[in-house]
Please model this.
Amino acid sequence: MPKDDHYVIIGNGPAGNCAADTLRKEDPEAKITIISDEKPLYYYKHRVPLYAMGGCEPDDLAIRPYRGYGEKQIRLRLGQRVEKVVPPEKLLYLKHMEKVHYTKLILAVGASARRLPNHAAFAEHLQCLAGFDDAKRVREKLLASSRIVILGGDLISMGFAREARKAGKEVVFILYSSLFWPVSLKEEIRQSVTKRLTSLGVEVVSDAEPVTDVQPAEGGYTVTLPDNSELSADLVFSFFGSVPNIRFLVGSGINTEKGVLVDDLMRTNQEDVYACGDCAQIYNPEFKDYWISVGWGNAEAQGEITAMNLLGREKVIDYQPKEIFEMDGVTIRTSWWKSFS
Amino acid sequence: MRREIYRSQVGNDGTSGMLRIIKEIAFSEDPRDFGYMADNVPCQHACPAGTNIPGYIRCITQNRYGRSYELNRIYNILPATLGRICSRPCEAACRHGEDDLGESVNICQLKRAAADLKPAMHRIKEDLYAPSGKSVAVIGSGPAGIGAAHDLAVYGHNVTLYENMPEAGGMLRYGIPAFRLPRDVLDLEIGNVLRLGVTLETGVLVGHDILLKDLQNKYDAVITTVGCMEPNRLGVEGDELDGVISGLDYMVRTNLGQPVPTGKQVIVVGDGFTAMDCARTSLRLGAESVRINVRATEEYMPVDAHEVHEVKVEGARIYSLVTTHRIHGSNGKVEGIEFLRTRLEDTPDGNGRIAVPIENSAFIMEADTIISAIGQHPKMNLGQALTMNGQRIGVRPGRFLTSEDRLYAAGDCVTGATNVISALAAGRNVAHEVDELFAGRRRKSLVVRFEPAEQTDREREYDFIKPVPMPTLPVEERFEQADNEVENGYSDAEAKKESLRCYLCSLKYEIDVSRCIYCSMCIDVAPRDCIKMISSVAERPDGSYGEYGETGKWNEVVAIAIDNKRCIRCGQCYDVCPMNCITITKTELVEVDREE
Model:
């Protein structure tokens, strides 16, 4: 590889950082840059509900300090949004009008909170907790609140409900069985989820999806259910999993569906552009469907293998056909891209 | 070099030129000026009908809704209709939607606002020509037929519209659901055409009830605008099963008020407006699960983001990267559909995508109703053979004349299924060609009109106004009655706010280089790289101007010029110029009578 190579990674999560570390290890000379629109340092995402609830401080979330990047000679550009990718010119356009040239690009942009289309009319009154910025925005209000309503849910919502109960909040969980993320809840699992939540002291409402309205009222919010009954809450949260942050790629020529479409070498359809982590979508021949892997472990593994492929050392991803995972005490059987050969 | 540019300021006829300063109203037919309009008023250029969009939006800002509606009608005779259902090619071209400039202006919704908010008893204007004594039969009263009938009537010819269905409107009435286009709106605007003296014969199938040959004998000219009324079939095993219906049939039968069996589990195949309309209609007819399946991905769907959003809000789900393999059923009735997953491959030009089936990727979705909305083609049952271009009616290159004398064709039956505004524009254009047959010359033509303007009409803060969302009915109210219109339309305040977002690209900013002192203050205040130091200007084969040759060296600079393709008409340069050497000219494409 020529020494003037510039590997650019968009995204400062586990996939991006793992990719950067692997690249540095394998190619000590190359210029490596991580660009992220988030301002905080690489942080533990699963601690976000704890932080939102006042259980820890921002410093407790950080995984690696700035000097860690300096030591590895990885340039970190935080709080800078990439607006456009132009693969034929190998250029990125940042929001502040700067152009960045790359020789190889890794998209590790992750995902943000999925919002339901039928909540669009009152979306502005719903809080999400997909990342640090969401938590920071809502933290003060959350600390002052005594009663919260959760619409959902997903993997994070169970932990969030638990933290909220620990903090002494009254919690009402309106369970959307058919829209539960990542798998809609069959009756058996629904009962299991309900039991688990109830044991935490959460009030579960399971026949009220979707709520028809959420409007501000007397310092809090009023949630209207399909039968026109109303619930009041200090804050209303929406937890429906996540969607890849790929809007900025529309029109770039990089193929996307729900995520960035990549082959089993993590390559997109555009030369020298790769994707990994929560934003990458791969065809799974066993399930005959395109899958997005979620979770920290997958992201790290994909970051590593993407870096290896980028350097020309072909590593084909493999998948684990069936996987049982624990979701805060509830067992769900599903499938993920998991391990790599 | 400097001299060359100065020479280019004055066109051959003395009326044109990139850097010429307009001091009084002027008209031009110079190709450079048409080229300028195409480049610099992108919305108008993208509109198949050539609607003067900045003009009608400006009228809304000025509270002149009636004038705005009439300005629309000059180009597009169905503003209230198109203001609801247009495919909006203008918005895709809008400069406000360029990178780093935010989002396009909601042009279509402003068109509707002009129609909704114009004064009651508003005056319709038509510039009628003297009666010609000539007669024309138009077969089909869809957008192309209505467009042709209107313009032919204005030209003074006697027009008879032959329509197979019980009422006029074609796809507008029978292809589009009433919750997107209320029928009273359509009736009113079609009525505005019929009242010009157009005779409407409904329930008449040409080729069956009356022969095309007889029409050709009876009328001085015949135009067929029969559209695309024959649905494409899936062509897979099981597509004849009970429960499989084409999207077009589904919509036509619903719009005729006929019962259409709709199951609980509906699968729609297709990615166009008809597919979306079918999905939304089936939800209103009791479907519990509606799944739209598309071969490629949402990015490549031909419908706009508004439509996709509304479909999802109402509860339908979109599945991409699938293609129909076969349809399963038993006892003659559909039970499910077998899809193959697809992967995207580049088209040869690299700009499009082809969805290619993946081997061994078959999977089944259960369904009791399958609606295939994968396009349509002309239904040729006129009773006599015409020269065809594949499944479409063949016409002479660049014209509307078919293989037969005095028989013309226009709209979707010539182009294949397109969109309403293209069909309407084609209808009007065929009318010009038929009129030329009678008059022996073109009686109307386009010119570019220039008028000096004294002010920018804009504030910089307007550039930061967020798009005003279209108010819509809550989902549960939409389903109370299937015909309840989903979009409520802008209020006066909302329309005005949205109208302020328009850059008014029809205003042309120019620097009078004879007075410019090259202080570069305009460059300093410009919000983007729209003012350039140039050394040359490219010229295109048609005579219009191309890109500026920029230079950073002062000894090469022959002018400081405003690149109107980059300019967002913010007026900052105009305000700051110490020499008042920046001028503003209002430009407009106008239709004028040709005396000879």
